[in-house]
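Page 42, continued from yesterday. The earlier attempt failed because a stray header line got pasted into the input along with the sequence. Redoing it now with the clean sequence only.
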Amino acid sequence: MLSIPAGCWLCAMPLAFAIHGLCNVCLRLLLVRSACCARCGLPSYAAAYDCGRCLRRPPPWQRLIAVSPWQPPLSQLVNRLKFYCDTALAATLARLLLLRWLQRRHESGLRRPDLLLTVPLHHHRAWRRGYNQLEDMAHRLAHWIPCRYLPDALRRVRGGKIQHRLGALARRKNLRGAFRLETAVRGYHIVLLDDVLTTGSTAAEISRILLASGAASVEIWCLCRTL
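This time it went through. Structure tokens are written below.
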């Protein structure tokens, strides 16, 4: 039987390898580097150094890697994965993050992480949604890098309100005491995986917990960074 060629998620051009999800042209456009601070991911003139915001009030994590700002077309793919159960996108989006990390590693000599963690969903929300959009991506990234992935190392013990519906101050209050670490992380260089970083409140709260528990460093990996 003849196989039907898969099309690029963005431009619908035929693909030689369906699992890649994106053609080379679309891939190159998505991976164009913008001038952003290597620590917070916000616009900066010198990406090799911490920006003025980070010099005055640095986030608790040490580095942030994002594929793109929160804008089409990547924001549309993230929404399809997150809210419309389009789980076939997980491999494509994980590959985008891997390629961005390899690009940054080539430029800056980043070390390979020891441990990969994901921002956890409260079990009630995970039950209603039916899946965690980050888990499939994390399994693939941990296999490709390679490093350990512990899906149950972080738990959300208090539900609270939905973060993307709150302002910056309300987000910080909503997260107090919301997470618990279930494993030893002393001396580990850790990657915390999320889909979108907006104010950074969730990533900051979890980073503080990890560093207080002895983690050597924390990097945030996300698909989109809201500017």
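Notes: The CA atoms of residues 162 and 169 lie 14 Å apart.
Reminder to self: strip header lines before submitting.
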